[in-house]
Design brief:
heterodimer; A: alpha/beta; Rossmann fold; four-stranded antiparallel sheet; 12 strands; globular; B: alpha/beta; eight-stranded mixed sheet
């Protein structure tokens, strides 16, 4: 058994843009562009970036909820891109997803009991009334919800409680790997902390592996052992989370971290304010995609895309003029 | 202390619902000073946006109404004045920016039209040509590149950050005395948020307006405000200048909020084993506890808190807290 549960190699996702009278392809968006990374068993890899950088597309491509255009996704030693529908369905038991908006991702017409039972029915788990009930109670205990939750409907719960139900639904099939797509972004801070703590406890108890996608760098840094930074479909830097804050080499990472407002008025630090917006992914700039916003850019950056530099076993980045 | 331009006193806002009456804002008092920013922080449902809408007289009536208190602006009590007079204040003297720049701009008008509309209503002395020029100047002021081109574009042609700049341009076009910013950067990415906050700080220095910054993000407050009011269940539970509040929070709720934020610990490189949380959740406004609203979630609650309600009272200088057992230093 390999140390790595997931090994993604050169993953690509390209969305064609059709236009004109005949609906021909007139362009394309490379939402995910040659992304490679590995996740160890029981580890959390955080994935950050601004909106439109391709982090959600990447998360969904790994589960083949969006069919990737190229690359390999090696899950527990096998390339799941070669799997047919039947094998893929069986595999989905082992990989689950939690979505951002707990208001939109629970069916309002189903009771919580039905919502939590559905994945078990699909995968034929915990058959029989007693076994099912026992498992449902166990799930509710795991996410710290009372047992009478089962007969209620989603609208009876607050955002934080709904997110707990979403977590319970993902856990229902005893997965090994969970893609968490902005699971706490819609929650208030005090509730957010409760859900983050819960997710970390569950990870420890059930030996789960997370890909944790968020735009809130503070939460990601806290929950993840390693963090990957994406910009316009490319992964520009990966490092251990404590290395990244303070020790980032890519200018974009540095700017991203310095942009976070710190809840401490006595800290007046030097902020790097990036000028301009993220360029359109339909026509990304030549060379390094970040060069029009980068204060370190040289002529080289305008013409060539930088290769991966491995600084250490855990820290790698793509930049010609890294921060020293 | 600089000049006081808005005085909100004991403001009460009620809503009639199918399940009975709720008090969304319950006795809120604060002042806005010229050239200074007050931050109003709180979680969803704490009444921070409703307070702002009440100042603008934008509470939909029915079901809502301002049930008590005064909002003094320029010697007038805003809830008492006639609607046509209110229209001269709203947008002209007191302007507001909303959270979602996509839904608060009209998609079928160019951004130029939307800025000009404000000028046409409030600055009637300007000729059409002068209005056009001022519109372009406003877009330049908020840092939109090539404003002569942008003025002809529609909101969908702009990015989120650019749209929020247009919102700010609309709000500032009449040089208001007070700017109310309701979660102005919540929908934006951090790098764009930093740009917008920087812009607001700069414009405040240049134009000297008072800002009411409504947000749930303590980081935004720490960086942009001079004074902070923390709201919980329709009441202000603590108020102080920004340095004092962050250094010596007195209310257990304020402290809990601060500790729920995962912090970078750059010195030791280690992180807290567990995030500190506030137990439970915000009570429903239909079913508030008898005593202190925070009683059932509070770590320092005593019997007294269950029975009677604390009042906002000064502890030290201008630092006020509504708690029977305020935290000591």
């Amino acid at each position: 058994m390999s140390e790595y549960l997931l090994d993604v190699r050169n993953l690509k996702k390209r969305f064609p843009i059709n236009g004109g009278l005949l609906g021909r392809e007139v362009g394309a968006v490379s939402a995910v562009n040659n992304v490679s990374f590995k996740i160890k068993r029981g580890e959390t890899l955080g994935l950050v970036g601004e909106s439109g950088c391709g982090k959600t597309t990447l998360g969904r491509s790994i589960l083949r909820l969006i069919e990737p255009t190229g690359g390999e996704i090696i899950f527990d030693g096998e390339d799941i891109r070669t799997f047919d529908a039947q094998r893929m369905r069986a595999l989905r038991r082992r990989m689950q997803i939690i979505f951002q908006d707990p208001y939109a991702s629970l069916n309002p017409r189903m009771t919580v009991g039905a919502i939590l039972s559905e994945p078990m029915e699909i995968h034929g788990l915990n058959k029989g009334k007693d076994a099912r009930k026992k498992r449902l109670y166990e799930l509710l205990d795991q996410v710290q919800m009372p047992r009478d939750t089962l007969n209620k409907y989603p609208h009876e719960f607050s955002g934080g409680q709904r997110q707990r139900i979403c977590i319970a639904r993902a856990l229902a099939v005893e997965p090994e790997f969970i893609v968490c797509d902005e699971p706490v972004s819609a929650l208030d801070v005090s509730v957010q902390a409760q859900v983050v703590n819960l997710m970390m406890d569950l990870q420890k108890d059930l030996n789960l592996t997370y890909l944790f996608i968020a735009h809130d760098l503070k939460v990601v840094e806290y929950i993840s052992s390693r963090v990957a930074v994406m910009y316009l479909g490319n992964m520009v830097e990966v490092a251990e989370s404590h290395e990244l804050y303070g020790g980032s080499r890519h200018p974009y990472t540095k700017a991203l971290f310095s942009a976070i407002p710190k809840p401490d008025p006595s800290l007046k630090q030097d902020r790097i304010i990036l000028t301009g917006d993220i360029p359109s992914p339909m026509k990304p700039p030549n060379g390094c995609h970040f060069h029009p916003r980068c204060w370190q850019a040289t002529d080289e950056c305008k013409n060539k895309y930088p290769d991966l530099t491995k600084q250490s076993e855990t820290h790698e980045y793509k930049c010609f003029n890294p921060i020293t | 202390m600089s000049q006081k331009i808005l005085e909100v006193k004991d403001l009460v806002v009620e809503f009639n619902t199918d399940r009975g009456k709720i008090t969304a804002v319950n006795g809120v008092t604060f002042d806005v000073h010229k050239g200074r920013s007050i931050g109003i922080v709180g979680e969803s449902g704490s009444g921070k946006s409703v307070s702002a809408l009440a100042i603008m007289r934008l509470i939909p009536n029915p079901p809502g109404r301002i049930a008590g208190g005064t909002i003094k602006f320029n010697g007038e009590n805003l809830p008492d004045i006639q609607m046509d007079e209110m229209r001269r204040v709203r947008g002209n003297k007191i302007a507001m920016i909303f959270q979602e720049p996509m839904t608060s701009l009209n998609p079928v008008f160019t951004v130029g039209n939307q800025i000009e509309e404000v000028l046409e209503l409030h600055q009637t002395e300007l000729s059409p040509k002068e209005r056009k020029e001022k519109t372009i100047d406003m877009l330049r002021l908020v840092g939109i590149p090539s404003p002569e081109q942008r003025v002809k574009e529609y909101p969908h042609q702009l990015s989120g950050g650019m749209r929020q700049r247009v919102m700010i341009a609309i709000a500032l076009s009449c040089e208001p005395d007070i700017l109310i910013a309701d979660e102005p950067t919540t929908a934006l990415d951090v790098t764009i948020q930093a740009q917008i906050l920087e812009l607001m700080n700069k414009l405040q220095r240049e134009l000297g307006m008072g800002i009411i910054m409504i947000t749930h993000d303590l980081g935004v407050v720490a960086e942009t405000c001079d004074e902070v009011a923390v709201m919980y269940c329709g009441q202000i539970v603590e108020r102080a200048d920004v340095d004092t509040l962050f250094k010596y929070p007195k209310h257990p709720y304020t402290k809990g909020l601060m500790e729920s934020i995962p912090a970078f610990d750059s010195t030791s490189g280690k992180k807290k084993e567990k995030l500190t949380t506030i137990e439970g959740m915000v009570p429903s406004l239909f079913d508030l506890p008898a005593g202190c609203n925070f009683y059932n979630r509070c770590v320092s609650a005593s019997d007294r808190c269950r029975e009677s309600e604390p009042k906002l009272s000064p502890v030290e200088g201008s630092h006020e807290v509504s708690c029977f057992n305020p935290l000591s230093l």
